[in-house]
């Protein structure tokens, strides 16, 4: 079980206490939308303002809390991490042909693909400039590694599309690159800038990685459970695009589906659903198979592993806050 600390602290309390510091990050992010192309700048501003809880910048700040917490040093890096995340979403939407993100029209829905790719590249460049402004070579190395891992994860997803022979190992590598690596890098950069000891920098990187794995698994479950209004994008998108996620893998493995049901879902993945009724049937088969609950058990174990790592940090409020954020990765489930 995960290590318990001196709380209780919940995620809402963490956000309340960190709000002034996160506002500094928010202000820095909005400065990056002041482009010479007002329409694109307005859309980027809308995307940034719809950016949710700012988990990655929050994780970066909290990783610094138990050590030398210097907000002036941390804010540019935190803003850079969020811009890197936003840029990756822009490219992801372009690759997927997605028209909605965070409840708003994507750039992909409004502009030619060449414009979208250039805007994404611009955001990657701005995020790198913010990372460089820390004047810390180690931070730049982590940032570059995160960027490479994100691209690796996206490539793995592209090449695995509509394949039904994806393994659990394949899936874990893909989601670590696409999602968890940025959580790991956020925590690592926060600890580096706060001058934490090397062993605790490594610990926080591992904490962020485990938390990020749980976050993505829950996200994959929500794709089956939630409505478009709740997740800000069309539900069932993974199955529609032939992307095999953990719930689909477990559906194939748990032995509860008949051979006919399994063959039907495999056909939807490999060939695409011929109509909405076929997609709805495939979604319902997976929902009622127990696969979603099994997937959440995987996420729960990642959260427990993440919280257990925190025992190696100084017993501070920052450590308690990190535990609450790890719990939130799981509590997002509906």
UniProtKB/TrEMBL annotation:
InterPro entries in alphabetical order = Isoprenoid_synthase_dom_sf, Polyprenyl_synt, Polyprenyl_synt_CS
For this chain, one GO molecular function annotation is: metal ion binding
Q: Which UniProt keywords apply?
A: Magnesium, Metal-binding, Transferase
| The EC number(s) this enzyme carries | 2.5.1.30
UniProt cofactor(s): Mg(2+)
The biological process GO terms on file are: isoprenoid biosynthetic process
Q: Pfam families recorded for this chain? A: polyprenyl_synt
**In which family does this protein belong, per the annotation?**
Belongs to the FPP/GGPP synthase family.
Entry protein name: Heptaprenyl diphosphate synthase component II
Could you tell me which species this protein originates from?
A: Thermomicrobium roseum (strain ATCC 27502 / DSM 5159 / P-2)
């Amino acid at each position: 079980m995960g290590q318990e600390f001196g709380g209780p602290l919940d995620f809402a309390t963490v956000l309340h206490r960190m709000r002034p510091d996160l506002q500094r990050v928010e202000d820095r992010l909005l400065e990056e939308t002041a482009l010479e192309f007002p329409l694109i700048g307005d859309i980027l501003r809308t995307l940034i303002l719809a950016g949710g809880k700012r988990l990655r910048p929050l994780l970066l700040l909290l990783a610094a809390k138990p050590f030398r917490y210097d907000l002036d040093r941390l804010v540019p890096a935190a803003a850079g991490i969020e811009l890197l995340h936003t840029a990756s979403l822009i490219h992801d939407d372009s690759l997927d042909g997605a028209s909605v993100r965070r409840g708003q029209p994507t750039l992909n829905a409004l502009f030619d693909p060449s414009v979208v790719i250039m805007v994404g590249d611009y955001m990657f460049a701005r995020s790198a400039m913010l990372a460089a402004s820390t004047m810390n070579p180690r931070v730049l190395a982590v940032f570059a590694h995160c960027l490479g891992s994100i691209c690796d994860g996206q490539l793995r997803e592209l090449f695995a599309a509509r394949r039904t022979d994806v393994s659990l190992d394949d899936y874990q590598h893909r989601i670590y690159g696409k999602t968890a690596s940025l959580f790991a890098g956020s925590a690592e950069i926060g600890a580096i800038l706060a001058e934490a000891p090397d062993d605790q920098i490594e610990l926080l990187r591992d904490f962020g990685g485990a938390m990020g794995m749980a976050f993505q698994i829950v996200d994959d479950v929500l794709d089956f459970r939630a409505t478009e209004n709740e997740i800000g994008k069309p539900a069932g998108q993974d199955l529609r695009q032939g992307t095999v996620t953990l719930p689909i893998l477990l559906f194939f493995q748990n032995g509860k589906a008949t051979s006919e049901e399994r063959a039907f879902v495999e056909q939807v993945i490999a060939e695409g659903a011929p109509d909405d009724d076929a997609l709805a049937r495939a979604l319902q088969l997976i929902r009622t198979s127990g696969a979603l609950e099994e997937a959440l058990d995987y996420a729960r174990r990642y959260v427990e592993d993440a919280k257990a790592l925190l025992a190696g940090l100084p017993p501070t409020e920052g450590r308690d806050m990190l535990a609450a954020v790890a719990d939130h990765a799981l509590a997002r489930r509906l």
